[in-house]
Task: inverse folding
């Protein structure tokens, strides 16, 4: 009985440096995600509604973050902008993970010529500035959510491909894989039962690390006018629109979407950094995972 | 019994390495070496670190491609390695590694570890359960240990599970690559006894690899020295 109790106690998470930060980050992120999810129910927004009698009002009780040059509530639109940014970030990160995971798995398991060709392709694309490449991809398509997701997905899969490939290469010649092969496991079984389960945590980590990048990429594209159509709220669109109001002294039009962007991506980055710490083999042994 | 056109050693039953060479990059570790393990025989393989003992085991287990020469099983030369070898041939030779930690998937319980080679070839579940229990009993693992994962058992207990796993398909040849080097004396003796009992029952050939000459003198029928 005491052994079972001890084992349970040992499994409890220990206080570690960064835990407070991670809790704060988790709370902020959870609040942001919930607000985004339920925004259409709690606080519906007509994207094309304009009130020219209310332009550039300073923050007040009625408009906590002020209004922009078309009389739209900045706090309200920031919420919808964040909604788009998070959606694009998550979907684009998933697209990138699927492409990168497939390329990495092919290179890592087939090896030889396939590996060399695919990895040189990765090096070639990595040599191009990815914002430039992203702009090129969006410019060929019509401005839409899909184009932005594609632009991010097609430029952000490189690191995932490298991670998956190197994990597979290091696993492939471990004795436990040899033992499985020698015990009669076929190629497919070795891949699905012994290799992939070890790669998946790394892949999941790569996806979450990619989300903040993807959010920034979407913002950058929208800021340059290449992202979403201008009437749709997106953090990048809003920061760009607010730029014009800055000269008239209406600093609030860019401030709230900018803060939302910084706070949410920092929270995401903090959480993923902590998760990465937990995946480190030495730390993991300590945590008995 | 010699068939025309074949070298004398090839038709003999047994696991044989014929003039095998192996190198890593420019470093040659085995140079045209012959080794023959007859059914029921225990052969010791002795040599200093880096003399190619483990490479020889990996060659014989069809896990490493020789630069020259070939491996033959019961008179049939084997071409290819790993998945290129049919399952029925591959499972004739089992290998027991030095480090049970490295040789086990940390996600699997000991029971799953032992059952894995059976599931890999599609053995029905009730047979898998019965044989797992039988093997666990043979190597001395309790039911409680079988539900644990590698991080929650000792090296000795894990090596017993590895031994059970290597005996699953009743291999004709068992290669023990420093398999007892990390174990305490009583576990060492027990592993040797289990291997010996299996060998008597199934007339299996055993290769014992060690740098410990005294151990080989006790265990092996004859010892092959690698330079």
Result:
């Amino acid at each position: 009985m005491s052994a079972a109790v001890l084992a349970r106690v040992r499994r409890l998470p220990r206080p570690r440096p960064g835990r407070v930060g991670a809790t704060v980050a988790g709370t902020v992120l959870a609040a942001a995600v919930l607000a985004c999810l339920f925004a259409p129910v709690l606080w519906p927004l007509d994207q094309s509604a304009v009130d020219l009698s209310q332009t550039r009002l300073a923050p007040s009780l009625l408009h906590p973050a002020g209004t922009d040059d078309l009389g739209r509530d900045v706090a309200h639109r920031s919420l919808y902008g964040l909604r788009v940014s998070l959606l694009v970030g998550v979907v684009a990160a998933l697209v990138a993970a699927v492409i990168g995971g497939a390329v990495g798995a092919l290179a890592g398991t087939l090896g030889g010529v396939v590996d060399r060709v695919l990895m040189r392709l990765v090096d070639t694309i990595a040599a191009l500035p990815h914002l430039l490449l992203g702009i090129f991809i969006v410019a060929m398509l019509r401005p839409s959510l899909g184009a932005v997701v594609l632009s991010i997905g097609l430029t952000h899969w490189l690191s995932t491909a490298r991670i998956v490939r190197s994990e597979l290469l290091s696993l492939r010649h471990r004795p436990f894989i040899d033992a499985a092969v020698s015990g009669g496991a076929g190629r497919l079984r070795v891949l699905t039962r012994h290799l992939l389960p070890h790669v998946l945590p790394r892949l999941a980590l790569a996806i979450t690390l990619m989300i903040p990048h993807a959010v920034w990429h979407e913002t950058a594209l929208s800021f340059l006018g290449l992202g979403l159509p201008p009437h749709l709220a997106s953090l990048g669109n809003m920061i760009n629109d607010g730029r014009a109001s800055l000269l008239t002294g209406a600093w609030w039009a860019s401030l709230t979407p900018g803060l939302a962007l910084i706070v949410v991506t920092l929270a995401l980055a903090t959480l993923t950094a902590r998760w990465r710490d937990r995946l480190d083999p030495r730390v993991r042994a300590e945590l008995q995972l | 019994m010699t068939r025309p056109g074949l070298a004398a050693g090839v038709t003999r039953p047994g696991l044989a390495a014929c003039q095998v060479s192996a190198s890593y990059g420019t470093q040659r570790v085995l140079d045209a070496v012959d080794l023959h393990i007859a059914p029921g025989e225990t052969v010791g393989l002795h040599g200093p670190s880096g003399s190619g003992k483990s490479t020889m085991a990996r060659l014989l287990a069809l896990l490493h491609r020789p630069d020259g020469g070939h491996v033959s099983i019961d008179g049939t030369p084997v071409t290819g390695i790993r998945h290129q070898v049919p399952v029925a041939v591959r499972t004739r030779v089992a290998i027991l590694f030095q480090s049970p930690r490295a040789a086990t998937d940390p996600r699997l319980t000991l029971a799953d570890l032992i059952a894995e080679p059976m599931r890999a070839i599609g053995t029905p579940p009730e047979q898998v359960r019965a044989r797992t229990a039988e093997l666990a009993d043979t190597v001395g693992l309790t039911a409680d240990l079988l539900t644990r994962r590698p991080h929650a058992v000792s090296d000795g207990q894990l090596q017993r599970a590895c031994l059970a796993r290597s005996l699953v398909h009743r291999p004709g040849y068992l290669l023990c690559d420093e398999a007892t080097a990390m174990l305490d004396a009583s576990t060492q003796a027990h592993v040797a006894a289990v291997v010996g009992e299996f060998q008597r029952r199934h007339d299996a050939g055993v290769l014992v690899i060690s740098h410990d000459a005294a151990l080989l003198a006790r265990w092996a029928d004859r010892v092959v020295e690698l330079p």
